[in-house]
Structure formats: structure tokens, C-alpha cells
């Protein structure tokens, strides 16, 4: 009996980690058997190529590595995490809450592709790679946190300040890339029928608690 897989997705600075933790705590409080995972898994050797890519060792422009090649780096990391850490838990009926997933390749890497037909080919290829060849489970629900870059910039700056001098990766340092990723993500969310939650109302960022309440309601209404 397979479990459930809920994914919290969004561009950088959208609050994914915070909302993943809150949903995890909420389901625990309900007595659910639940675990949370986060991607990339930076504590695992499987993330080595991801670190090299994000550190700019293959080029400081995200476009220096094409969407297909980059996606493999992230897909292998997910495969290792699934097989080593949470496959048995999931197979036995547990609930997994993922901070990013296969969906992040769709958000970030598909954003590198301008041609609509080529992007569609990429989406088909990625689904076959991760869900078919690698055998990763498909999400039961993807919640997309819609945080426009103009609002997420301040949140990213505050988060990076807490890193105490650590440098930004090549995605975080490229505002054009981040805008393209966001624009692409809006279209992907509609294309993939994700549950989109707006993080901004009346030109103000909604409170963490307000967004969390909508996420819980979305899960309960499934």
C-alpha cells in the first residue's frame, strides 16, 4: 500500500521550507505517520554534481549547462534519496512532504527553454526519466507558492543575511534567471494542474499563518 506524497513548490524565496515544516507539524499533530524530505539533499554524496553546478564550476551562467543535463544532476539526487531514505516508509503507507521535487526541474530547467515545442519535449522527457526510468512516485498533490520575484527578493536577502557571508549560488545571483523561472513556473503550474496559492494579496505578502491555513485546507479537500 503506497502512502501519500505532498509537494511544496515555488521559486527561490517563496517560503517553501517554512511551509513544509508547518504542514509536517500540522499532520503530526493529527496523529499522521509523516516524514519530510528536501531537495537537493545536500548532506548526501548524490548532490555533488548539483553543488558543482550551483557553485559555478561548469559555468557561472545557468544557461552554460542545458536543461536536460542539469536535470539529470537533480534527478539522480532524488533517486538516491528515495531508494536509500524514504522508499520503505512510503511503500508502507507513510505520508511524505517534500520541499521541492521533480517539479523543481520543471520550474527551473524548463525555464531555460524558450521554444514551446522544445519545452513540451523536455517535459515529456523529464517525466519519463524521473517517474519512468528512475521509478520515483508521482505526487498526490503539488502546492505551488506563487511569490512574484519583486516580493521574494527581500525575503531572499533576509535569508542570505542569515547565512553569515556564504555566497549566493548561480541561480540566486542572476535576477534575470529568477524572473524567467517565475514566468515559466506560472505557465507550468497551469499546464500541470498544480494547486496555486498566491502569497501576495493587496500588494502585501500574506502572513505565514494565512498561507499555511490555505495549504492545510487544500490537503483536507483532496
Concise account of the structure shown:
The chain has 222 residues and is an alpha/beta fold. The chain has helices spanning 16-29, 48-54, 67-91, 102-109, 116-133, 149-161, 175-191, 208-220, and strands at 4-10, 34-38, 95-99, 141-146, 195-198, 200-201, 204-205.
Q: Can you describe what's shown?
A:
The chain has 222 residues and is an alpha/beta fold. The protein is 52% helix and 14% strand. It has eight helices and seven strands; from the N terminus they run βαβααβααβααβββα. The strands form two sheets. The protein has a five-stranded parallel beta sheet with strand order 2-3-1-4-5, sandwiched between helices. The protein has a two-stranded antiparallel sheet with strand order 6-7. The relative contact order is 0.20.
Number of helices: 8
Number of strands: 7
Strand content: 5-15%
Helix content: 40-55%
Shape: globular
Summed over residues and divided by their number, the pLDDT gives a mean of 93
Oligomer: single chain
- Taking pLDDT < 50 over at least 5 consecutive residues as the criterion, the unreliable ranges are none
Give, in spatial order, the strands making up the sheet with the most strands. Answer: 2-3-1-4-5
Report the structural category: alpha/beta
Major sheet characteristics:
5 strands, parallel
Taking the alpha carbons of the first and last residues, their distance comes to 19 Å
Topology order in helix (H) and strand (E) letters: EHEHHEHHEHHEEEH
What's the alpha carbon Rg, rounded to whole Å?
17 Å
Please describe the topology of this protein.
Layout: E1 4-10, H1 16-29, E2 34-38, H2 48-54, H3 67-91, E3 95-99, H4 102-109, H5 116-133, E4 141-146, H6 149-161, H7 175-191, E5 195-198, E6 200-201, E7 204-205, H8 208-220
Parallel strand pairs: 1-3, 1-4, 2-3, 4-5
Antiparallel strand pairs: 6-7
Amino acid at each position: 500500500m503506497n502512502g501519500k506524497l505532498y509537494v511544496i513548490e515555488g521559486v527561490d524565496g517563496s517560503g517553501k521550507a517554512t511551509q513544509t515544516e508547518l504542514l509536517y507539524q500540522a499532520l503530526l499533530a493529527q496523529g499522521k505517520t509523516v516524514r519530510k524530505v528536501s531537495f537537493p539533499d545536500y548532506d548526501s554524496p548524490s548532490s555533488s554534481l548539483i553543488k558543482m553546478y550551483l557553485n559555478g564550476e561548469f559555468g557561472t551562467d545557468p544557461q552554460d549547462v542545458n536543461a536536460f543535463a542539469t536535470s539529470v544532476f537533480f534527478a539522480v539526487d532524488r533517486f538516491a534519496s528515495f531508494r536509500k531514505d524514504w522508499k520503505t516508509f512510503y511503500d508502507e503507507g507513510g505520508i511524505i512532504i517534500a520541499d521541492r521535487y521533480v517539479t523543481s526541474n520543471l520550474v527551473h530547467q524548463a525555464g531555460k527553454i524558450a521554444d514551446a515545442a522544445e519545452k513540451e519535449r523536455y517535459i515529456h522527457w523529464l517525466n519519463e526519466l524521473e517517474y519512468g526510468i528512475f521509478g520515483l512516485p508521482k505526487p498526490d498533490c503539488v502546492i505551488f507558492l506563487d511569490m512574484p520575484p519583486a516580493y521574494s527578493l527581500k525575503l531572499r536577502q533576509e535569508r542570505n543575511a542569515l547565512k553569515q557571508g556564504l555566497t549566493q549560488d548561480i541561480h540566486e545571483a542572476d535576477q534575470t534567471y529568477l524572473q524567467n523561472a517565475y514566468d515559466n513556473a506560472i505557465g507550468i503550474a497551469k499546464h500541470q494542474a498544480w494547486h496555486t496559492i498566491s502569497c501576495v494579496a493587496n500588494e502585501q505578502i500574506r502572513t505565514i499563518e494565512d498561507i499555511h491555513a490555505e495549504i492545510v485546507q487544500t490537503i483536507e479537500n483532496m
